[in-house]
Amino acid sequence: MIEAVGLTKRYGAKTAVYNLSFQVRPGHVTGFLGPNGSGKSTTMRMILGLDMPTSGHVTIGGHPFRQLPNAPRQVGALLDAKAVHGGRSARNHLLSLAQLAGIPAQRVDEVLGVVGLQDVARRRSKGFSLGMGQRLGIAAALLGDPQVLLFDEPVNGLDPEGILWVRNLMKKLAAEGRTVFVSSHLMSEMALTADHLIVIGRGQLLADMSVKDFISANSADFARVRTPQTEPQQREKLTAVLTEAGGRVLSEPDGALRVTGLPLPRISDLAHGADVRLWELSPHQASLEEAYMRMTQGAVDYRSTDDRLAHLQAPVPPHQLPQDPQAQYVIPEVPQQGWYAPPPPGQNPYATAPQDPQQPGQNPEDAR
Ligand SMILES: Nc1ncnc2c1ncn2[C@@H]1O[C@H](COP(=O)(O)OP(=O)(O)OP(=O)(O)O)[C@@H](O)[C@H]1O
Protein backbone atom coordinates (compact mmCIF):
# COMPACT_ATOMS: atom_id res chain seq x y z
CA MET A 1 0.00 0.00 0.00
CA ILE A 2 1.08 3.55 -0.73
CA GLU A 3 0.20 6.11 1.91
CA ALA A 4 0.64 9.86 1.62
CA VAL A 5 0.06 12.09 4.63
CA GLY A 6 -0.06 15.86 4.31
CA LEU A 7 2.28 15.87 1.31
CA THR A 8 3.33 19.35 0.27
CA LYS A 9 5.94 20.33 -2.29
CA ARG A 10 7.05 23.85 -3.04
CA TYR A 11 9.48 24.91 -5.73
CA GLY A 12 10.38 28.42 -4.63
CA ALA A 13 7.17 30.40 -4.76
CA LYS A 14 5.36 27.65 -6.67
CA THR A 15 3.29 25.20 -4.63
CA ALA A 16 3.11 22.08 -6.80
CA VAL A 17 1.43 19.83 -4.21
CA TYR A 18 -0.44 20.98 -1.13
CA ASN A 19 -1.42 18.91 1.91
CA LEU A 20 -2.20 15.77 -0.06
CA SER A 21 -3.29 12.69 1.91
CA PHE A 22 -4.44 9.44 0.32
CA GLN A 23 -3.94 5.69 0.28
CA VAL A 24 -3.44 3.42 -2.71
CA ARG A 25 -4.52 -0.11 -1.89
CA PRO A 26 -3.39 -3.44 -3.30
CA GLY A 27 -5.64 -5.43 -5.61
CA HIS A 28 -7.01 -2.34 -7.37
CA VAL A 29 -6.08 -0.08 -10.22
CA THR A 30 -6.12 3.40 -8.72
CA GLY A 31 -6.34 6.20 -11.25
CA PHE A 32 -4.52 9.42 -10.42
CA LEU A 33 -6.22 12.22 -12.28
CA GLY A 34 -5.71 15.91 -12.65
CA PRO A 35 -5.35 18.59 -15.32
CA ASN A 36 -1.93 19.50 -16.73
CA GLY A 37 0.33 20.91 -14.06
CA SER A 38 -1.86 19.72 -11.18
CA GLY A 39 1.01 17.93 -9.45
CA LYS A 40 0.66 14.28 -10.50
CA SER A 41 4.27 13.77 -11.59
CA THR A 42 5.56 15.69 -8.57
CA THR A 43 3.54 13.41 -6.29
CA MET A 44 4.84 10.31 -8.06
CA ARG A 45 8.41 11.56 -7.80
CA MET A 46 7.93 12.07 -4.06
CA ILE A 47 6.51 8.55 -3.69
CA LEU A 48 9.64 7.25 -5.42
CA GLY A 49 12.02 9.32 -3.31
CA LEU A 50 13.15 11.35 -6.35
CA ASP A 51 11.87 14.58 -4.80
CA MET A 52 11.73 15.36 -1.10
CA PRO A 53 8.46 16.73 0.26
CA THR A 54 8.58 20.23 1.74
CA SER A 55 6.34 18.80 4.46
CA GLY A 56 4.33 15.64 5.04
CA HIS A 57 5.49 12.16 4.12
CA VAL A 58 4.74 9.23 1.88
CA THR A 59 5.44 5.55 2.46
CA ILE A 60 5.23 2.30 0.52
CA GLY A 61 4.41 -0.69 2.67
CA GLY A 62 5.08 1.49 5.72
CA HIS A 63 8.57 2.65 4.62
CA PRO A 64 9.79 5.71 2.77
CA PHE A 65 10.98 4.54 -0.68
CA ARG A 66 14.63 5.25 0.11
CA GLN A 67 14.48 2.96 3.14
CA LEU A 68 12.88 0.04 1.31
CA PRO A 69 15.16 -2.99 1.25
CA ASN A 70 15.81 -3.98 -2.40
CA ALA A 71 13.41 -1.34 -3.72
CA PRO A 72 13.57 -2.36 -7.44
CA ARG A 73 12.08 -5.72 -6.56
CA GLN A 74 9.30 -4.13 -4.54
CA VAL A 75 8.40 -1.10 -6.61
CA GLY A 76 8.38 -0.62 -10.38
CA ALA A 77 7.71 2.68 -12.08
CA LEU A 78 7.29 4.27 -15.46
CA LEU A 79 7.83 8.00 -15.06
CA ASP A 80 9.41 9.18 -18.28
CA ALA A 81 9.55 6.73 -21.15
CA LYS A 82 12.15 8.91 -22.89
CA ALA A 83 14.65 8.47 -20.06
CA VAL A 84 16.55 5.82 -22.01
CA HIS A 85 20.05 5.78 -23.48
CA GLY A 86 19.06 5.93 -27.16
CA GLY A 87 22.25 4.24 -28.37
CA ARG A 88 21.48 1.08 -26.42
CA SER A 89 19.24 -1.69 -27.66
CA ALA A 90 16.04 -2.32 -25.73
CA ARG A 91 17.52 -5.54 -24.41
CA ASN A 92 20.79 -3.93 -23.30
CA HIS A 93 18.89 -1.10 -21.62
CA LEU A 94 16.89 -3.61 -19.59
CA LEU A 95 19.99 -5.76 -18.95
CA SER A 96 21.80 -2.79 -17.40
CA LEU A 97 18.83 -2.06 -15.14
CA ALA A 98 18.58 -5.75 -14.23
CA GLN A 99 22.28 -5.95 -13.36
CA LEU A 100 22.02 -2.92 -11.07
CA ALA A 101 19.13 -4.52 -9.22
CA GLY A 102 20.56 -8.04 -9.15
CA ILE A 103 17.82 -9.38 -11.40
CA PRO A 104 18.70 -12.39 -13.61
CA ALA A 105 19.08 -11.75 -17.38
CA GLN A 106 16.38 -14.33 -18.11
CA ARG A 107 13.81 -11.94 -16.63
CA VAL A 108 14.77 -9.34 -19.28
CA ASP A 109 13.65 -11.68 -22.05
CA GLU A 110 10.49 -12.48 -20.12
CA VAL A 111 9.43 -8.82 -19.80
CA LEU A 112 10.37 -8.09 -23.43
CA GLY A 113 7.86 -10.82 -24.32
CA VAL A 114 5.23 -9.43 -21.95
CA VAL A 115 5.36 -5.99 -23.59
CA GLY A 116 5.62 -7.38 -27.13
CA LEU A 117 9.08 -6.01 -27.94
CA GLN A 118 10.83 -9.37 -28.38
CA ASP A 119 11.23 -8.90 -32.15
CA VAL A 120 12.92 -5.50 -31.80
CA ALA A 121 14.85 -6.29 -28.62
CA ARG A 122 18.23 -5.80 -30.32
CA ARG A 123 17.30 -2.55 -32.07
CA ARG A 124 18.57 0.76 -30.72
CA SER A 125 15.84 2.44 -28.75
CA LYS A 126 16.48 5.85 -30.35
CA GLY A 127 14.63 4.58 -33.45
CA PHE A 128 11.63 3.55 -31.39
CA SER A 129 8.22 5.11 -31.87
CA LEU A 130 6.51 6.81 -28.92
CA GLY A 131 4.44 3.68 -28.36
CA MET A 132 7.47 1.36 -28.46
CA GLY A 133 9.21 3.66 -25.97
CA GLN A 134 6.20 3.41 -23.64
CA ARG A 135 6.32 -0.38 -23.90
CA LEU A 136 10.02 -0.36 -23.07
CA GLY A 137 9.32 1.85 -20.04
CA ILE A 138 6.60 -0.55 -18.90
CA ALA A 139 9.02 -3.48 -19.35
CA ALA A 140 11.51 -1.69 -17.09
CA ALA A 141 8.81 -1.20 -14.46
CA LEU A 142 7.93 -4.91 -14.54
CA LEU A 143 11.54 -6.09 -14.40
CA GLY A 144 11.71 -6.76 -10.66
CA ASP A 145 8.26 -8.42 -10.62
CA PRO A 146 7.26 -5.81 -8.01
CA GLN A 147 4.14 -5.73 -5.84
CA VAL A 148 3.76 -1.97 -6.23
CA LEU A 149 3.63 -0.32 -9.66
CA LEU A 150 3.42 3.33 -10.61
CA PHE A 151 2.76 4.44 -14.17
CA ASP A 152 2.79 8.11 -15.18
CA GLU A 153 0.60 8.54 -18.29
CA PRO A 154 1.33 5.03 -19.65
CA VAL A 155 -0.98 5.29 -22.66
CA ASN A 156 0.69 8.44 -24.02
CA GLY A 157 1.41 7.89 -27.69
CA LEU A 158 -0.12 4.43 -27.86
CA ASP A 159 -2.48 3.43 -30.66
CA PRO A 160 -5.90 1.95 -29.79
CA GLU A 161 -4.53 -1.57 -29.71
CA GLY A 162 -1.72 -0.42 -27.40
CA ILE A 163 -4.17 1.41 -25.14
CA LEU A 164 -6.28 -1.73 -24.83
CA TRP A 165 -3.16 -3.73 -24.05
CA VAL A 166 -2.11 -1.33 -21.27
CA ARG A 167 -5.64 -1.33 -19.87
CA ASN A 168 -5.70 -5.12 -19.68
CA LEU A 169 -2.18 -5.28 -18.28
CA MET A 170 -3.06 -2.85 -15.44
CA LYS A 171 -6.15 -4.88 -14.59
CA LYS A 172 -4.21 -8.14 -14.67
CA LEU A 173 -1.50 -6.76 -12.39
CA ALA A 174 -4.14 -5.57 -9.92
CA ALA A 175 -5.98 -8.90 -10.12
CA GLU A 176 -2.71 -10.55 -9.04
CA GLY A 177 -2.99 -8.52 -5.83
CA ARG A 178 -0.52 -5.78 -6.75
CA THR A 179 -0.88 -2.11 -5.98
CA VAL A 180 -1.29 -0.28 -9.30
CA PHE A 181 -1.22 3.52 -9.34
CA VAL A 182 -1.64 5.07 -12.75
CA SER A 183 -1.79 8.74 -13.64
CA SER A 184 -3.72 10.15 -16.53
CA HIS A 185 -5.53 13.29 -17.56
CA LEU A 186 -8.04 11.21 -19.52
CA MET A 187 -11.02 10.44 -17.36
CA SER A 188 -12.65 8.42 -20.12
CA GLU A 189 -9.65 6.08 -20.16
CA MET A 190 -9.57 5.80 -16.37
CA ALA A 191 -13.28 4.95 -16.36
CA LEU A 192 -12.39 1.82 -18.30
CA THR A 193 -9.22 0.96 -16.41
CA ALA A 194 -9.44 2.04 -12.78
CA ASP A 195 -11.56 0.84 -9.84
CA HIS A 196 -10.67 3.78 -7.67
CA LEU A 197 -9.89 7.42 -8.40
CA ILE A 198 -7.79 10.06 -6.76
CA VAL A 199 -8.41 13.43 -8.39
CA ILE A 200 -6.25 16.46 -7.74
CA GLY A 201 -6.36 20.05 -8.96
CA ARG A 202 -3.55 22.54 -8.39
CA GLY A 203 -1.88 20.07 -6.08
CA GLN A 204 -4.89 19.60 -3.80
CA LEU A 205 -7.16 16.62 -3.33
CA LEU A 206 -10.52 16.98 -5.08
CA ALA A 207 -11.82 13.42 -4.83
CA ASP A 208 -10.80 10.05 -3.43
CA MET A 209 -13.48 7.48 -4.21
CA SER A 210 -14.46 4.49 -6.32
CA VAL A 211 -15.20 5.09 -10.00
CA LYS A 212 -18.79 4.04 -9.31
CA ASP A 213 -19.21 6.53 -6.47
CA PHE A 214 -17.52 9.24 -8.50
CA ILE A 215 -20.06 8.85 -11.28
CA SER A 216 -23.10 8.81 -9.04
CA ALA A 217 -21.81 11.71 -6.93
CA ASN A 218 -20.91 13.89 -9.86
CA SER A 219 -23.06 13.18 -12.83
CA ALA A 220 -26.65 14.25 -13.12
CA ASP A 221 -29.25 12.06 -14.74
CA PHE A 222 -30.96 13.58 -17.73
CA ALA A 223 -33.48 12.63 -20.35
CA ARG A 224 -32.87 12.92 -24.07
CA VAL A 225 -36.01 13.89 -25.92
CA ARG A 226 -36.36 13.99 -29.69
CA THR A 227 -39.28 15.28 -31.68
CA PRO A 228 -39.77 14.79 -35.45
CA GLN A 229 -36.97 16.69 -37.23
CA THR A 230 -39.37 17.85 -39.92
CA GLU A 231 -41.54 19.70 -37.40
CA PRO A 232 -39.38 22.22 -35.51
CA GLN A 233 -42.46 23.89 -34.05
CA GLN A 234 -43.13 20.68 -32.07
CA ARG A 235 -39.72 20.96 -30.50
CA GLU A 236 -40.29 24.59 -29.56
CA LYS A 237 -43.68 23.79 -28.12
CA LEU A 238 -42.26 20.98 -26.04
CA THR A 239 -39.38 23.15 -24.81
CA ALA A 240 -41.87 25.75 -23.59
CA VAL A 241 -44.10 23.16 -21.88
CA LEU A 242 -41.20 21.39 -20.14
CA THR A 243 -39.66 24.68 -19.01
CA GLU A 244 -42.99 25.85 -17.63
CA ALA A 245 -43.26 22.60 -15.67
CA GLY A 246 -39.91 23.34 -13.98
CA GLY A 247 -37.60 21.36 -16.26
CA ARG A 248 -34.29 22.59 -17.56
CA VAL A 249 -34.03 22.16 -21.30
CA LEU A 250 -30.85 22.36 -23.36
CA SER A 251 -30.42 21.74 -27.07
CA GLU A 252 -27.95 19.15 -28.25
CA PRO A 253 -26.08 19.71 -31.53
CA ASP A 254 -28.12 17.09 -33.41
CA GLY A 255 -31.42 18.72 -32.47
CA ALA A 256 -32.35 16.52 -29.51
CA LEU A 257 -33.29 18.13 -26.19
CA ARG A 258 -31.51 17.36 -22.96
CA VAL A 259 -33.94 17.66 -20.06
CA THR A 260 -33.14 17.66 -16.36
CA GLY A 261 -35.42 18.17 -13.38
CA LEU A 262 -38.36 16.12 -14.67
CA PRO A 263 -38.85 12.36 -14.48
CA LEU A 264 -39.35 10.50 -17.76
CA PRO A 265 -43.06 9.66 -17.20
CA ARG A 266 -43.78 13.35 -16.50
CA ILE A 267 -42.00 14.39 -19.71
CA SER A 268 -44.06 11.82 -21.59
CA ASP A 269 -47.32 13.08 -20.02
CA LEU A 270 -46.44 16.72 -20.71
CA ALA A 271 -45.62 15.91 -24.34
CA HIS A 272 -48.88 13.99 -24.66
CA GLY A 273 -50.83 16.86 -23.07
CA ALA A 274 -49.25 19.32 -25.52
CA ASP A 275 -49.97 17.02 -28.46
CA VAL A 276 -46.27 16.70 -29.29
CA ARG A 277 -45.06 13.45 -30.87
CA LEU A 278 -41.82 12.02 -29.50
CA TRP A 279 -39.31 10.07 -31.52
CA GLU A 280 -37.04 9.48 -28.53
CA LEU A 281 -37.37 9.64 -24.77
CA SER A 282 -34.41 7.97 -23.11
CA PRO A 283 -32.67 8.08 -19.73
CA HIS A 284 -28.97 9.07 -19.62
CA GLN A 285 -26.25 9.79 -17.18
CA ALA A 286 -23.65 12.50 -17.83
CA SER A 287 -20.34 10.97 -18.81
CA LEU A 288 -17.47 10.53 -16.42
CA GLU A 289 -15.49 13.01 -18.51
CA GLU A 290 -18.15 15.65 -17.90
CA ALA A 291 -18.13 14.96 -14.16
CA TYR A 292 -14.36 15.25 -14.13
CA MET A 293 -14.38 18.49 -16.12
CA ARG A 294 -16.94 19.93 -13.76
CA MET A 295 -14.91 18.92 -10.72
CA THR A 296 -11.62 20.31 -12.00
CA GLN A 297 -13.02 23.40 -13.71
CA GLY A 298 -11.65 25.74 -11.06
CA ALA A 299 -8.29 24.03 -11.05
CA VAL A 300 -7.18 24.24 -14.66
CA ASP A 301 -3.96 26.20 -15.03
CA TYR A 302 -3.75 26.48 -18.78
CA ARG A 303 -6.82 27.28 -20.80
CA SER A 304 -7.29 28.60 -24.32
CA THR A 305 -8.49 32.20 -24.43
CA ASP A 306 -11.52 30.92 -26.41
CA ASP A 307 -12.37 28.56 -23.55
CA ARG A 308 -11.96 31.36 -21.03
CA LEU A 309 -14.56 33.36 -22.92
CA ALA A 310 -16.87 30.34 -23.14
CA HIS A 311 -16.40 29.82 -19.42
CA LEU A 312 -17.85 33.27 -18.80
CA GLN A 313 -21.21 32.16 -20.21
CA ALA A 314 -23.04 31.28 -17.05
CA PRO A 315 -25.67 28.57 -17.48
CA VAL A 316 -29.07 30.09 -18.03
CA PRO A 317 -31.67 29.38 -15.32
CA PRO A 318 -34.70 27.49 -16.71
CA HIS A 319 -37.04 30.48 -16.45
CA GLN A 320 -34.62 32.61 -18.49
CA LEU A 321 -34.06 30.10 -21.28
CA PRO A 322 -34.73 31.76 -24.62
CA GLN A 323 -38.12 31.00 -26.06
CA ASP A 324 -36.97 32.31 -29.41
CA PRO A 325 -35.83 29.22 -31.37
CA GLN A 326 -33.21 31.33 -33.16
CA ALA A 327 -31.61 31.99 -29.77
CA GLN A 328 -31.61 28.36 -28.60
CA TYR A 329 -29.07 27.53 -25.94
CA VAL A 330 -27.05 24.82 -27.63
CA ILE A 331 -24.87 22.23 -25.93
CA PRO A 332 -21.44 22.38 -27.55
CA GLU A 333 -20.28 19.22 -29.31
CA VAL A 334 -16.95 19.32 -27.53
CA PRO A 335 -17.50 19.43 -23.78
CA GLN A 336 -16.31 22.74 -22.36
CA GLN A 337 -15.04 23.32 -18.89
CA GLY A 338 -17.73 24.28 -16.48
CA TRP A 339 -20.51 24.41 -19.02
CA TYR A 340 -22.81 21.50 -18.34
CA ALA A 341 -23.49 21.74 -14.67
CA PRO A 342 -21.10 23.77 -12.54
CA PRO A 343 -21.40 22.84 -8.88
CA PRO A 344 -23.58 25.16 -6.86
CA PRO A 345 -21.68 27.88 -4.98
CA GLY A 346 -19.92 26.44 -1.98
CA GLN A 347 -19.98 22.89 -3.34
CA ASN A 348 -16.85 22.99 -5.45
CA PRO A 349 -14.33 21.22 -3.24
CA TYR A 350 -11.50 23.15 -4.81
CA ALA A 351 -13.12 26.47 -4.05
CA THR A 352 -13.36 25.59 -0.37
CA ALA A 353 -9.85 24.16 -0.11
CA PRO A 354 -7.37 26.20 1.90
CA GLN A 355 -5.77 28.87 -0.22
CA ASP A 356 -2.03 29.05 -0.32
CA PRO A 357 -0.88 32.65 -0.06
CA GLN A 358 2.26 31.71 -1.97
CA GLN A 359 0.29 30.42 -4.94
CA PRO A 360 1.24 32.74 -7.78
CA GLY A 361 -1.92 32.10 -9.78
CA GLN A 362 -2.34 31.18 -13.39
CA ASN A 363 0.98 32.24 -14.74
CA PRO A 364 2.01 30.08 -17.70
CA GLU A 365 5.58 31.04 -16.90
CA ASP A 366 5.25 28.70 -13.97
CA ALA A 367 5.18 25.78 -16.38
CA ARG A 368 8.37 23.83 -16.57
N1 LIG B 1 11.38 21.15 -10.67
C1 LIG B 1 10.42 22.06 -10.71
N2 LIG B 1 10.66 23.36 -10.49
C2 LIG B 1 9.68 24.28 -10.50
N3 LIG B 1 8.38 23.98 -10.71
C3 LIG B 1 8.07 22.71 -10.93
C4 LIG B 1 9.05 21.67 -10.94
N4 LIG B 1 8.41 20.48 -11.16
C5 LIG B 1 7.11 20.77 -11.31
N5 LIG B 1 6.89 22.09 -11.18
C6 LIG B 1 5.60 22.79 -11.24
O1 LIG B 1 4.73 22.14 -10.38
C7 LIG B 1 3.42 22.03 -10.95
C8 LIG B 1 3.01 20.58 -11.00
O2 LIG B 1 3.76 19.93 -12.03
P1 LIG B 1 3.61 18.39 -12.35
O3 LIG B 1 4.56 18.06 -13.46
O4 LIG B 1 3.74 17.61 -11.10
O5 LIG B 1 2.11 18.31 -12.86
P2 LIG B 1 1.37 17.15 -13.67
O6 LIG B 1 0.02 17.03 -13.04
O7 LIG B 1 2.22 15.93 -13.71
O8 LIG B 1 1.25 17.81 -15.10
P3 LIG B 1 1.16 17.10 -16.56
O9 LIG B 1 -0.14 16.37 -16.63
O10 LIG B 1 1.17 18.28 -17.48
O11 LIG B 1 2.36 16.22 -16.70
C9 LIG B 1 3.50 22.69 -12.32
O12 LIG B 1 3.05 24.01 -12.21
C10 LIG B 1 4.96 22.66 -12.63
O13 LIG B 1 5.31 23.72 -13.46
Order of helices and strands: EEEHEHEHHHEHEHEEHEHEEHEHHH
SS element count, helices: 13
The small molecules bound here are:
adenosine-5'-triphosphate
The assembly state of the depicted protein chains is single chain
- Portion in strands: 15-25%
| Span of the ends, CA to CA | 30 Å
Write the layout of secondary structure elements.
Layout: E1 2-11, E2 14-24, E3 29-33, H1 40-47, E4 55-60, H2 71-74, E5 75-78, H3 90-101, H4 105-114, H5 130-142, E6 148-152, H6 160-175, E7 179-184, H7 187-193, E8 196-201, E9 204-210, H8 211-218, E10 221-226, H9 232-244, E11 248-251, E12 257-260, H10 264-273, E13 280-285, H11 288-296, H12 305-311, H13 349-352
Parallel strand pairs: 3-7, 3-8, 5-6, 6-7
Antiparallel strand pairs: 1-2, 1-4, 8-9, 10-12, 10-13, 11-12
The structure holds adenosine-5'-triphosphate.
